[in-house]
Structures are given as C-alpha cells and as structure tokens.
Amino acid sequence: MASPQTMLDKLWSAHEVLRRDDGVSLLWVDRHLVHEGSHHAFAKIKERGLPVAETALTFAVVDHYAPTRDRSRIADPQITRMIDTLRGNAAAHGLRIYDLEDPHQGIVHVVGPEEGLTLPGLLINCGDSHTSTHGAFGALAFGIGATEVAHVLATQTVWQRKPKSMRITVDGVLGAGVTAKDVALGWIAKLGTDGAQGHAVEYAGSAIRGLSMEGRMTLCNLSIEGGARFGMVAPDDKTFAYLDGRHFSPKGADWKAACADWAALASDEGAVFDREVTLDAEEISPTVTWGTSPEQALPITAAIPDPAGVPPEKAEAARMAIEYMGLKAGDMLEGTPVDQVFIGSCTNGRIEDLRAAAAVLRGRTARVPGLISPGSAQVKAQAEAEGLDRIFTEAGLEWVASGCSMCVGMNGDLVGEGKRCASSTNRNFKGRQGRGARTHLMSPAMVAAAAVTGTLTDVRPLLEGRAT
Amino acid sequence: MAGWRTHRGTAIGLPVANIDTDQLIPARFMSVPRIEGYGPYLLHDMRRDATGSLRRDFPLNTHPKASVLVTGRNFGSGSSREAAVYALVDAGIRVVIAPSFGDIFAANAVNNGLLPAKVDEKSHAALEAALANGPQDITVDVVDRRLALDEVKVGFVLDDSWAEKLINGWDDIDLTRKHSAAITAFKISRSQTAAWAWPRPED
What's the complex ipTM? Predict the structure, then answer.
C-alpha cells in the first residue's frame, strides 16, 4: 500500500511536469493572476519578444493602485500610468482584465474566489505574497517575484523546490469576538515571523473546520506573515457550497467530477508532517499588534511588554518598535488612543468582515475618522444591499470603493506621519501605511471597537446583547 | 545576466533583524521603471531624516561603495516585491549575509544575481563583531560556499540549484523552453484527467 500522503504531496505531484536531478520541480500553473505591479514582468517578456503562453489562464486585476474615490478623475499621473500600463499589457496579450469600472473589480485575492477562478486542486500564482489566501480552498497557491511572473507568463510553469510540510492544528471552539485573524496573529506571535520559513502550512482541527470560507481565507492569507509561502485548508462541503454556481466554477458533469477529485485532496490519515504545532482555540483572545512586526502581538487584555522581559534576541527589536510606535512599556494596550481606523484589504475586506464590523458599529458613533474599503465591488454591492454602508456612514466613517487602499498606500490612501491607525490589514511594518505611520493590526470587529471608543478596546463587552 | 563565482568587495554591518521589503523599498517608489535605477530608494526611510537628507550615522551612507551587507535574521521578509532586490543590486550590493531570509526574497535575489548567504548564528555573531568598528574587505566564494572577512573565515548555506544559477547566470525562461515538449504533454494529460481545471465561464 502507498504511504499516506499530505495534501501538499497530492497537490505537488498533480502539477509536477518534471523534477531535475537537483530536486527542483517544474510545476504547471493553472491560474496566473496579474496586477499593476506586474509591469516589470510584462516588460521582461516584451524585451524578449515573447507572448503570454496561456491567455485563457491569465487574469489581470486593477487593485494595488485603484483609487477608492473619484475614479473618473485620477489626480496623480503616476497612478494613471500604472493602471494604463496594465490595461495596455492586458490588451496587447488579450487578457481578461477586471478594470476600475468592472462590477467584479476588487482585490485580486478577493476576486479570484468570488469569480470561481480559485478552485481546490489548482496551482495558483500571483506576484503578491498574499497569494497564499487561495490555499483556503485546498489550492497550491503562492506568491512569486517579477522574474518568476515573467517566467509564468512565458511558459505557464514555475520552478520550485518542494517546501517542507507543517500542520497547525487548532481544536476547540473560538470564543465570542474571536476570529481567524486572532488565530493567525496568535500563532505568528508564538512562532515568530520566520517561524514557518521554508514550510507549507496546512491548517487543521475542529476550530479550522468551523471557520467560514472567509475566515479560512484570512488565516491562509496571513501565512506569509509567519514566513510560510503556502497556507492551505482541506476542501469540504463549505468549500463546495461557496464555489457552486460561481461564474468560472465548473458546471454540470465537470462539477460532479471536480467535487469527487477535490474530496480526495485532504491529507491521508496517518500522513506525516515535517513539523506539527497545536493550539487550543479556547486560549485565543482578541489580539492586537503593539510593534512593527506581526509577531509583536498580544491579547488586548495584556500590557505593552518591557524589552527587558522579552527573550534577549528580541529585546532590541522590541525597544525599537516601542519607540517607533510611541508607546510605553508596562502601559495597558487597552485604552491606547488611536487617531483613525481602516477596514479592508485582502486579509479582512470580505462580506463577513464588514458584517462583523457593522455588528459593533450599529447605532454607535465613531470617535475617530476612518475609512472602510470593501474587498471588491461585489462585496460593496452586497454590503449596500444589507444596509451595512448606512451603519458605517451613520457612525461617521467613510465608505469608499474597493482596492488595496490603506493597507499599502499605493493609491494615495495613507496614514499620516506619527498617526496611530487601528487596521484590519496584514502588515504593521514601519512605514507600511505611510512614512512614520503607526499601525495596530486586529480583526475588523476590534477595529470597529477602536472606532467607537477612540482607543484600542476589547470588542467583547461591546458585543454583549447584540446579534453577531 | 552575468554569472559569477567569487566576489571581492567591502562589507558593512547593518545589525538589525527583520528588515522587511517595505523597509528595503517603500511602496511609493515602486511605479518607477527599472531603467531609471532603484539604487536611490534602497532603505529610503531608514537612510534619510524627515527632510530627505541622508543621515550621517547610517552605514550605507558613510560607505556608499559597500557591496556586501551583513545583517540580522529574517532579512527580506514580507511582500514579494522584486523591487527590493532591484534596490540592492542597483545600489551595488552583490551579497547579503544573514542568519535567515524571507523565502520569496531569497528566490528573487538569486534571479537577479544577488547572493543571499545564510550563515549560522555563531558565524553571524563573529561577522558582526568584526564589522563593529567599520567596513572590512571580504571575499565570497559561491563554488566553495565560503567567505573570509578579516580573521573570520566561515561557510554559508545556499541551495545547490541556486548556486548553479548564480555561477552560470542562467535565465530560467531559456532553460524551461528546452522542456516545451514535456510541458505540452503535461498540459494535454491534465486537460484530460482534470478538465475542470480550465475556466469555462457561464454564458
């Protein structure tokens, strides 16, 4: 009998065109997603006079530079040039482009699943580190650099050494107000931002199976913040229900065949992982970052750490982070005043995220300004149909169009120097949201709580007696 | 891209852990065409004060001819932006030495002839100590995976396939196109065994 296989083993062998003597595999790419930042790669294939090998498997999305307001009049010529370059490349190669006015435009990692472009069993590449998001469907999805993007454009394949396997098992039931974001920040705080380097992470356990597809996407999305290029969850009935009837999902006999193939993707009983980590869902609390790395995260009920009290190899980083963040060791995290809030991004810009924020904001007023950018035009339309936009605007927050927006600031949505932002995004790196900006990462519900009180706040008391 | 085996240059220390790609090149500079050069944007916000002037206490500013960086763990973590590598290469950096690297960054580095040399913690501490008082001459040998800086002579770790790529200056697209028959055969086989893997939009 064949030895039990991990999901990674199955996905890898299903895509391996060949393996060289040195152990590096040439893998077939089922979906290639490109965005404005792919301009270097298009320039590379143009230089060589090469076409896009598989135009039907290549999709272009305007997201990183997408203006969230006044799309018809973009003031910054650099932004216009970036978007026009993608349009030009998509037209030259005959690629489907999700442009600004497209009713299905949005962030590439939101659009892929929404459109049914993301499916279990596929290999998906994109020139963006958060491509691990698509692994939530049981796909082999990973971010690549511009040289690799050019390679995929030209050959529809990618060279890759198989990573080591790691399973993070979370059993138990997550408490009220505790989300996939908290699970992710929790494991990254425990293992470090390089804790899963060189590994593909499979998330398993009853708490993971209990997550919605949106929650699984949030979790897989943040894999890279723990160093893993790949994150994945075994497909199940929730996965199939999400995909059934989507625009590009298989139909009819293809759908039945697909579901049968997908059901066999899960890791076999007894499959051996190179590394196993287990977490107890009951021990996870609403979590916020206090520093400039996603690993610098703590439960909202904790105090800002004293650098003298953290492991010596992390003390200097803690000291520098506390200085940059304008915090004081020993102060409680809860009650730290914020200047603004942001809800959106490929991490937490989906409908469930907006519902969670609205559950907190309903009938309340924000004490600080803030921006809410849905992850896609479809999410925006759905939220408006549910009346969530009115809850946000009545609270005093700004409701804008979809894009990467204030997560990375390329479109001009920036946090000012020295300003503190409660943010549902993925990176609290120095300068990520703007030069000198101070970012605290947390779940959308926690961002909403910060908006209501104007400080970092435990969302749980604000949810009491409310339907969530 | 030209291959290389040995590099002799000047090493400087940048003893900071977790230098992520947002710090290597802030996002606002990434719309610049490569031909204009990315060197001026390398570590832009670390190197400059609020007025944009170069900080005199920053090692890269005092030693602009440095070609080797010795830095802390998890270098190049974060986004997949290859522009982080362009900024290093265009600023004349050929080798980065650290205890660990972000996975995507390391792959991007090798694709641009930049060596991500991974050293153990003990070697790293010795190299940092040797650079504490300023830059030093360094020799880096990709074939033997050895480097020598003053009295410190240590080995480094590099994937065999990456060493070969650096040495030969290989371009993957040329290599892969030699396998085009195998790729076509794979595609045909996959389209038969997993027809659902091809997008078929509804009418």
Answer: 0.96
